[in-house]
Amino acid sequence: MAPRIPALARYVRFSNPVESTPGGRFPHVSGFDLEGRRLQIPDDLSGPTVVAIAYRQHQQADIDTWMSLLVQLEDEGVDVFELPTIRPLGVVGQTWLDTAMRMGIPDPGARRRTVTLYLDVATFNEALGIPGTEAIQTLVLDADGTVLARVPGRRSTSGTAEVLTALEVAGWTQPSRATTASSDG
Predict the structure, then answer these.
(1) What DSSP assignment string belongs to 99-139?
(2) How far apart are CA 107 and CA 52, in angstroms?
(3) Rounded distance, CA 164 to CA 27, Å?
(4) Segments forming the whole domain that contains residue 61
(5) What CATH code is carried by the domain that includes residue 125?
(6) pTM, two decimal places
(7) Which of 84, 93, 96, 163 is the most exposed place for a label (fewest CB within 10 A)?
(8) By the 8 A CB rule, do 70 and 52 touch?
(9) pLDDT tens-place string over residues 132-164
(10) Does residue 3 belong to any structural domain of this protein?
């Protein structure tokens, strides 16, 4: 079991600066999963990784279109993270939001893969070449944090194929049972 992190200590560095890196790399960011473990991306990546970025609560429905595939990939050794990405809210606001999310997500696996990023969203998006916050973004990263694919929006057949192809480029071997079917056709 992970050590408990005192609530206040978790947020001492809540103004999480984003460092833009050249060459299509994911910017250096850090956050805590809903189990209280700190994650630094891309530093803590150990292999091919898929991150699904959302900016607003209602976008969870779009993230959910990807979840059957992402959970399957996670079961097959791919690291998967959901990254709710919002501006810093201060200690009280962030504690409240993290607590509300923890209460709303009872599954331990979903809690471990959910890492809220409190940062300057415009700077973060600029570093990734993301034009705005209207659509979720699903990215494939290699172990060094190089962005191999970025698929905006809900899951589709072409988006699924792009993610699976990028994972193969990153060194993941697709089992024969992996699906290319999308949740919406």
Answers:
(1) HHHHHH---HHHHHHBEEEEB-HHHHHHHHT---SSS-EEE
(2) 18
(3) 22
(4) 14-169
(5) 3.40.30.10
(6) 0.81
(7) 96
(8) yes
(9) 999 999 999 999 999 999 999 999 999 999 999
(10) no
